[in-house]
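Below is one protein, fold included:
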Amino acid sequence: MTIDETTHTPQDSKDWTEDRRLVLYELRRLGKSVEKIDDKLDKNRLVFEHRISKIHTEVVTLKVKSSTWGAIGGAIFGILGALLIKLLG
């Protein structure tokens, strides 16, 4: 197929018609592939958002537990320290 230099269109219109159909077919096929990939990405995004939310909840729970145990441990050492001072002092 050759290109007309003035119109920049194929000179053999029969060949261009077939090529045009093939190009349109490929564009549609690729469009469907992109839609499938987009759907998979949306599903994965929802799964990851759920997992991140779950991890966030677990981290908050661990922070509360560690603060509580830290306070209990500090209180125990404070009480033991006060008792030792009374006993030794």
About this structure: The radius of gyration is 36 Å. The longest helix spans residues 13-88. Helices lie at 13-88. The chain has one helix and no strands.
